[in-house]
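Justification of computing resources. Each target in the renewal requires a structure prediction run like the one illustrated here; the chain below, 201 residues long, is used simply to show the kind of job we budget for.
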Amino acid sequence: MDAERRHLVIFARTPAFGVGKRRLAAGAGELVTLRFQRFMLADLRRRLGRDRRWRAWLALTPDRDALGRPGILPQGRGDLGSRLLRLLKTLPPGPVVVIGSDTPGVTPADIARAFHALGAADAVFGPARDGGYWLIGLKRAPRRRDPFDGVRWSTSHALADTLANLAARPVARLRTLEDIDDVDSLERAMKGGRCIRPEFS
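Resulting C-alpha cells:
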C-alpha cells in the first residue's frame, strides 16, 4: 500500500507549564513535567514522523495551536473517544494508527507491525500496563459501531471497554508498554534508558 494511504497520528497536548500530566507533576514537579512533555513530543516526531512507510500527522489540543499548520490537526471538543472518532472521519482514506505522546518505548518497528496487522485484522491495540492502550489502529468502514462508545477513559477498563465494542471483529495485539503517568513510571523509564534524557533525573 502507498505510504500516503497509511496514516500515523501522534495525539498530544501542546506542552505548557502547569497544564496536563497532573499525577506526574505532583511527584516530579512542573518543570520536569514540562521538559518531559517537550522531549517526548519532539522525540516521537523525529523518530516516527520522518518514516517513509506512512504519512505522519500531529493532532493537537488546544485547537488554536493547530490552525494553519500543515500536517497538524485540531483535536476538537469532547472526551477522548469523541476526539478520536472525529479524527477518523477527518483523515484521507486508508488505515489509521494513533499513539499518544507519553510512551517512550514505542519504536518505528511497533508502528510497522501495527500497519501490517491491519492487513488481516480490523483493529490493532498496543496494550498499556495500566489497562489502557498506547496504540490503536483501525481500518475505516462506514456503518460500524463506534469503537469508543461508553469507554471509561483514564481507568483500568479502557482497553476492555474498547475491545467489547469490537467483539465481532478480528483484533490484533502488539506488545505491552508503559505510559508515563506518574513519577514512579518516569523513574522506571529513566532506569531502563528508554528515550529519557538525564535532565529529568
